[in-house]
């Protein structure tokens, strides 16, 4: 099963028409991502914000790496476009707003069994792709990460890559997030990067396209490919962003993720590109 089968579960409980709220959430996201931002003050730890991510990695059976990365990407964009993110005054929206104004940092942890169940009590959205589950939480100062999450391991079990990465793309026209496999990122690092990709892609989308994507549960594909193929994907993304290519790029959105280099990769590395198709 692939991103075509993605499902996300929000804790909002709202059964009415949430379109206006999602529209407002998209406006906040796209406006923030288009602006210069670095609201971090090294002398004030509360300004160092991060979105916690938790990946469920049981002892057995292990989830498929691709599905777990897709679940993380879906969960993140589902938080950003959650109806609560569009409410005029809510703790959910305020936490996103503070994070949007700082560096877009994510910290991935792993959990299993009771600790995974306990993590569901922290505000956020859980996404399921195939047999893989991930939850993205509302951002917070790194030094104020909820105890239920802070005790979880950041490093640990990695997962092998999925063969024939691009075979799934023929079945539908869902967005694709390309990952440079040549960087050798761990599953936790890659989860943070594809989550950057999904939220930036949503920000780059026309609001109506974003609403359609939200209505179907944010289905997407993640493809980890060798560096030469990734370079081709980067070139395509730049063409889309520049509007070069006529009908081949018309109406499409693209996002490029360049990592700050805090962990695993060199500063300035392009780790992920995300495109609509």
TrEMBL record:
Residues 1-21 are annotated as: Disordered. Its EC number is 3.1.1.29. InterPro entries: Pep_tRNA_hydro_II_dom_sf, PTH2. This is peptidyl-tRNA hydrolase. One of its GO terms (molecular function) is peptidyl-tRNA hydrolase activity. Keywords: Hydrolase. The keyword NAD does not apply. It comes from the Bacteria. It comes from Corynebacterium terpenotabidum Y-11. It catalyses: an N-acyl-L-alpha-aminoacyl-tRNA + H2O = an N-acyl-L-amino acid + a tRNA + H(+). It is an enzyme of class 3 (hydrolase).
